[in-house]
Amino acid sequence: MKSLVSCLLAVLLLGPALSALAQDTVPRSQGQIDLTFAPLVKAAAPAVVNIYTRTVVKERQSSPFFDDPFFRQFFGDQFKSGEPKERVRGALGSGVIVRTDGLIVTNNHVINGADQIRVVLNDKREFEAKVIAAEERLDLALLRVETKGEALPVLSLRDSDDLEVGDLVLAIGNPFGVGQTVTSGIVSGVARTNTGIGDFGYFIQTDAAINPGNSGGALISTDGKLIGIPTAIFSKTGGSVGIGFAIPSNMVAAVIKAEGNGGKLVRPWIGAAGEAVTNDIAQSLGLPRPVGVVVQQLYADGPAEDAGVKPGDIIVGVNGREVEDPEGLRFRLATLPVGEKATLNLLRKGEAVDLSVDLVAPPDQPAPGETLLDGRQPLSGALIVNLSPATADELNISAWDGVAIAKIKRGSIADRVGFESGDVIVKLNEEKIVTAADLARLMEQTPAPWSITINRGGKVKTFDLD
């Protein structure tokens, strides 16, 4: 049985052996039977760690009867829920040591909100860890453990742009807390966007089994290098069905570099925005296939406009790397450092054009001017802000000016009416909204009825309210 399993692995998984075995039904040598991933795993596994977190939460202890109106009609509030009691909630995940001095990368959702983080190495050594950077939108975080001068094993990063569909990969992590586990598979897809995972999605897809607890672990290539951080799965059961997603190592590298900047990753901004090329747009422009981003907006005197980009240009690549849609463009730019230049590969009226563009930090003026609206009016419970390129980037909004809803208090009037975080307030009763202060003043002075026009993801919607 062992020989049969080894044979199947050799035939199905190991590329170099396929050509030699193409004409045969059985291995031709003992060496082909003994092919194994063991040396690869032995080298990589020590750099993959288990992460255990503890979070103190407060919960009220009560009977469901105490919230029943009929029960309270007779007994009043004398049996009302008592003071909140503290409870410790545990969670687990995985991480990867990327520097010998104890720098570890993991998913943000693994450590988000944790009061205590414990890192356990493959050799059972344990360390307390501190969060030094957390990127919620990227779902990446950096931890540091105190090694007291001892060098830890590390995984070096590989250029994830070199990956191709069909490449062999291994996933190493701690699924379900059973202990470090290795699974194998192939790259099922690259540059996956529109997956519904976060708002900055650009992923490697793999069929290597990924389960709860694998998050933050390692996806490695057959040269033993890190090519991705497993972050999510598509599943209706909670277990692996062969569709897993990993954050590419090039994005991981950008976050690691930010550690030297106090842990804050500043994503480059060029001042250009647009929509993905659809099949209809491609046909109208005579393109062989739908790919790229049609430029619709240019920030006045921004880097893209200064470089010569024009509305209607199609951005098809950055530094020669293909761009398929706006998410792909954001990923390509996010992996590059602020202060340098990039080459935008464009199509302009069917002709290829390359332009050099400066990569700058998004401007942060005007100041956000955060204002929480209250009172008996439709936007009560909404936190509004002035938009700037920097604020728009944080909120993942394509508009660069105006007033937007940054947050909405759950259960508030604004929430019940149907407003959402990210809505840009365009007009109130046909009066254009310019600043958050203007909107706050108008909402106080304007009696019902209200007509509020918003822009939500490029679509204009009007709320007529009494």
Summarize the helices and strands and which ones pair or pack.
Layout: H1 2-13, H2 15-21, H3 30-33, H4 38-44, E1 48-59, H5 69-75, E2 85-99, E3 103-106, H6 108-111, E4 116-120, E5 126-135, E6 140-145, E7 168-173, E8 181-192, E9 203-206, E10 218-221, E11 226-233, E12 244-248, H7 249-258, E13 272-276, H8 279-285, E14 293-298, H9 303-307, E15 314-318, E16 321-322, H10 326-334, E17 341-348, E18 351-358, E19 371-372, E20 382-386, H11 389-395, E21 403-408, H12 413-417, E22 424-428, E23 431-432, H13 436-445, E24 450-456, E25 459-465
Antiparallel strand pairs: 1-2, 1-4, 2-3, 3-6, 4-5, 5-6, 7-8, 7-10, 8-9, 9-12, 10-11, 11-12, 13-14, 14-15, 15-16, 15-17, 17-18, 19-20, 20-21, 21-22, 22-23, 22-24, 24-25
Helix pairs in contact: 1-2
Average pLDDT for all residues: 86
- Gyration radius from CA atoms, angstroms: 26 Å
- % residues in beta strands: 25-35%
Largest sheet: 7 strands, antiparallel
Defining traits:
disordered N terminus; six-stranded antiparallel barrel; Pdz3 Domain; seven-stranded antiparallel β-sheet; 13 helices; 4 domains; 34% strand; 466 residues; 20% helix; alpha+beta; Thrombin, subunit H
Short overview:
The protein is an alpha+beta fold and 466 residues long. Helices cover 20% and strands 34% of the residues.
